[in-house]
Amino acid sequence: MVTTRLDDDAAKAAPLFENRDWRLHADGLEHRDTGYFIDRDTLNARRPDGHWEWPLHLSEKSWCGVRSFREAFIAALDAFGIVPDRKLTLSFALGFGTRVGGAAPDAFVPLADLVRPRAPAPRAAFAVRPLVAARA
Fold it and tell me: Organism's domain of life (predicted)?
């Protein structure tokens, strides 16, 4: 996946949208801390199965929080007239998983952990008692 950086003039332009992690410029979407940039022309990139590329790709980044990215991504689609479809929701679910109660707002819970839960931890050793009481 090819990404580009904003030139100085574009970087100085007022953002169209911003939240705690992302800024939307006329040229595309930029992560505020890392400078990671998604070009406007690639926002609607899809994989061969129809899933959206960016939610799946960004879910692999440890610095990408799902709530702020989703908010910024939807704002970018809206600003650039890109119509989301049902595969967008599935792409976020497949990539970022589902948040389970008690997790931090942007905590990542892989979908595989929900479908195939981890085996319980082994129990502590215990004394074996005979099934039949000994006769005196």
Answer: Bacteria
* Residue 50 within a domain: yes
For 33-95, give the DSSP string: TT--EEEGGGTT-B-TTS-BHHHHHHTT-TT--HHHHHHHHHHHHHHTTPPP-HHHHHHHHHH
* Residue carrying the six token digits 């890392």: 34
Residue 124 placed within a domain:
no
Domain count, the chain: 1
pLDDT value for 100: 45
pLDDT greater than 80 at residue 28: yes
Could you tell me the two tokens for 24?
């939307």
Backbone angles phi, psi at 19, to 5 degrees: -135, -165
Q: Which pLDDT does position 54 carry in this prediction?
A: 96
pLDDT at residue 6 is higher than 90: no
Residues spanned by the domain of 26: 8-115
Within a domain: 29:
yes
